[in-house]
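Hi U.,

Before I forget, here's the chain from the pilot set. I'm dumping it here mostly so it's searchable later in email.
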Amino acid sequence: MKAGKLDIGSKLILAPMAEITDSAFRKICRDYGAGLTFTQMVSADGVIKNNFNTLRYLVFSRQEKPIGVQVLGREPEILKNAVNELINFQPDVIDLNGGCPASKVCKFDMGAKLLDDTFQLGKIVTTMVKAAGNIPVSVKLRLGKNNKKINIIENAKVCEENGASFIIVHARTREDKYSSQPLMHWVGEVKQKIKIPVVVNGSLFEPAEIVKVLKDTGADSAMIARGALGNPFIFSRFNAIYETGTDPGSPSLQEIKSVCLKHTEYCTSEMDETAAINKMKKHIIWYFKEYKGIEFLMDKIFSVKTFNVLIELIDEHINNIDNEFYKNDTTEDFRRKFNEKVIFWSDN
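Structure:
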């Protein structure tokens, strides 16, 4: 997929996720073949006010490029000023969030609430594009307010007409949030109506499924959110299917252990050991979510305080799995709750 100077080829995109897409997680996903990653979403207002908690999300190294920044806002002037600040960080994409369905966002007419006013959306996009210069501006959209008011075609067209380089379509409405099945056929409808690239998003968990969705919709790429949690392998497996036609399959337990340790090392390079271990606990649960004994791991891991004890716990858990120590299999229930965002440990 090409957008301005950005060219990620056939690779997938890591979505921005609150409290998740920090530098360590972005690096892991890049290691496994993500073509583009995003920092955590930032507030336009926070950017122009130099809010510390906002600006710290924007820190990334040159080795992480290409990288995008997603901004949340509603006022064209504020977003223009925010973009003027963001370009100093030299991201490869600046994305407008028009997809977040959270009540705490929509009540301020931001996120997916922008979908209700196509004219205002156009004003915002053209303002951001002018301010961004040669940095591509993308827009993340949902299908509309609800199933009775789907206006994705109108919103996609106005984004294109006002200079957006590509759009990301989360194939649900605002009222659907994350519980229903995404309506992927709408992505195909959008792709037929506009010329700029279209990226599909929404409950993409399996590499083969992503390949099929791209084929069925004609989308130029896919953005992966929850599908990458505990599963950076989704990127390498997709790349393998695309390049060779063969899925190398799920990782071994030893490969999962290896990525857990590497991810933890990335964390400890940026913060102290205690903070890194606390941040990694949810990730390690996600890494082992497909295996029996998830309750054992959840019960034990939250009391871990050191890197050495963490390694011991991972080794013990892998040994228990290998020796079929766990008899009750609740992974399906855990996976269902995870997919429905019942078990997620994040505000995004």
